[in-house]
What does this fold into?
Amino acid sequence: MYAVSEQYKTAMKQPVQRFRMTGKVGRVSFTDDNILSGSFSITNQCSDDSSVQIGQVYIGELDVTLMNLQIPRYSWKDQEIAPVFGMRLADGSFEDVPLGVFTIDSAKHTASGVVIKAYDHMAKFDKNCSVTSINGTAYNLMLTACTACGLSLGTTSEAFAAMANGSDELSLYSESDIETWRDFVSWVAASIAANVYAGRDGKIYVKSYGQTVIDEIDTEHRFTGCEFSDFSTRYTGLSVVNIDAKSTSYYALDTDDGLTYNIGSDPFLQYGVEEKKDAQRRAILTALSKVDYVPFKAELIGNPAYDLMDVFRFTDGLADKDKLFCMTKFTFQYNKSFTMQGVGQDPALASAKSKTDKNLQGILSSNENQDYIRYYDYQNAADYDIADTAKAKIIDIRYVTVKDTHIDFHAEIKLTLDTTETEAEEIISDTDAVMVVTYYLNGEEVKDYVPVEMLPDGTHLLHLLFTWNSTANLTGNFEVWLSMAGGSCHIARGDARAYMAGQGLAGSGAWDGTISVYDTVPEMNLFPVYRSFDASVTVGLLSPETTGYSDIVPSMQLSSVLQPIAGTIGTVKFLHRFDTEHLDTVTYSSDEIEMKDGTWKLKDGVTIAELVTSDCTADQILSVTSNCDSNNVNFLASFDHGSTWWEYANGWITPDTTKESYGMFAPAMKEITKKQWEEKLNGSIQLKAIIHEKGTLTDIQIFTKEVEE
It folds into this structure.
């Protein structure tokens, strides 16, 4: 449940409630007056319509028809819409509850308004995922997926650690069916017995099932027609496909009288010795044992403070107050109702096949064709920071061969170097850092090929290449270690990219039980164990002699070799230009606007500010252009030295400054014709730029005269 106040909780239980709806489409605000009655709804879920599930990654959907918003046609799609529900409290004030951040997928203009369908940020995971080999904790894996899709992760690493397998290192089996990043996060969530959803702030959250009741709802606060099942959904068994063994393993609680959850061929539950894999799978089953919910469907007054996977008690009437009810789906219809639903299956009706299917063979692909060239991709799931004189492993790839083959390894690593400063003779100088790359093949150090790179401060790309021959039927391991001297190195998450390719490579194979550990031995003082020695240096001074050369070059007459130069200048446009090179021609507050790299933008924490040009003399105006963020910068024009300001929208109009967004966008201002400027022009012009959050402005140009030369 969203964190609301006690006053809000009191108001949401009242028989008569007052509420409002506000929000934004891009930077344009809307209220109840802009919403077609009965058109606003949000639907979301974390399981299908039949059973309680884990590893689910559903997309939330918003439908609404908006009216009378000053948003240009053809600019609705891909705009963000962020609605906010406000509940009126006993003191007359409103407490707001954000409903999420959605991206408009379609906008259809009708007589009733603009019909919008929008989806929350879970849709941004629908991008191709090229990662086939990666390992890390669930937190780092989710962070990698979010970063790849331009999203923020809202669940903390501490919250992940509290989930099943949340502290374990998970490795991705390369022969998986992952195609998109949504597939990727689905399997990560399944491996920790959780679901993934987009939060009200647009960030991505991961949540597991629990038994903590967040609210109790009696008959007075739910509409008639509610449905409650006469059984509880319970899981006491877990079925997992073993990809390598092509079999299915079954795990059960001591009393196995409930449903069996089939998690399938989870690619993050395939590596490790049997004891480790069994422990991870049983941890999922333990988490699933918290699922003890009665399926239901209930309709309440339209209050959207509840979240997916919230647990309730329903009392009085048909409900059993001693049971738990978990919301796995909801539909919120503004000014109508909030319909919540919890799904589940009856353990008593579980088919005999679900129990006898414990050890059946899985339907799995095999590596029958040994002539394919297979690729193992790798990228790091966590940051690497390698200090001066330190050494760390940055790449680790396991591979399996089914025949004698030649293997190629390629890597590209983006890293940032910070060289160590040295002081000599009171002069501080920077030297290049030395990076030494060491390869380990199947646990053995490769000593005949050791790449060394010397680089200065800054960001660099390190390219690596190594090839070798391998025998058939081998489960191998290839590692890349990086040691530093004269500086430190930082490699961000996802910036170490590599692949291994070869004919006759198979799936990544099961882990053979080998564990590699390493430690760093600190520097030791050996002075007591070696004999003293003496060394002397003879210093001499050399005085080099210099020899100079000179010559006299006589003047030359070039008139005989140069032809006369003649030409004409065509059309010339005179203009007034305002940019960061001419700060004396603009006025703005340095507390609100800063100049960086030839561009004006708002300082951190500032949401809107103005920049005004100086007065320009102009008898005519051909056009006015600007290089700026056209969605976040608006313009006004003054023809009386700043006393009054105008915008052009099918004629010159006075801007409505009570609105959050007013003025002309740069593309619209550019389309104003010479004749339209003449309607207001009276010898001078002054422009005002209104910069909104994230907006940037490089220059403004006023073309005033065109002359034929």
Q: What stands out?
A: The helical segments are 6-11, 138-148, 157-161, 181-191, 274-288, 352-356, 666-670, 674-678. The first helix runs from residue 6 to 11. The two ends are 73 Å apart (CA to CA).
